[in-house]
Predict the structure.
Amino acid sequence: MKKISMRIMMVMAIAVFSVTSCSSGASMLSSGSSLLSSMGANPSLSSMTSLLQTPGLGKIMGPALKGPFTMLAPSNSALSSLGPDAISSLTKPENINQLADVLKNHIVPGKLDANSLMKGGLKTAGGKDLNLAGVNMSDAISGKNFNVIPVDKILK
């Protein structure tokens, strides 16, 4: 009986370990994730939160969201400056890679604060030099493996 209990506990431990170690960055964009829940609590990020839930985006964005990261999340007003046609066009299935490219320019590897970001010398997950000239940042939303910092502009 004792051996069976030990085997059951061992199998359960292996199952739990495999589930937690196999989690991908794509899971950060699944409904109810800590990232989307945290962002959803900020009304000025509702458009960005919706954009991140575009079907198929999680697969493409997964590597950029694996491990600690900082997302510079454009506010509703920043996204609306693109115009309604631009946003709806980016969310079409045929434009999902273009949407991912835009969003990767808003992600920096590492869980950083605003002061660290302003020092410069950083690259985005999209491979571009991070340029925050003229960008206003709001208070960070912090999670276990991420910081989300609302910004008032779309980063290019």
The chain has one domain: 26-151. The longest helix spans residues 2-21. The mean pLDDT is 85.
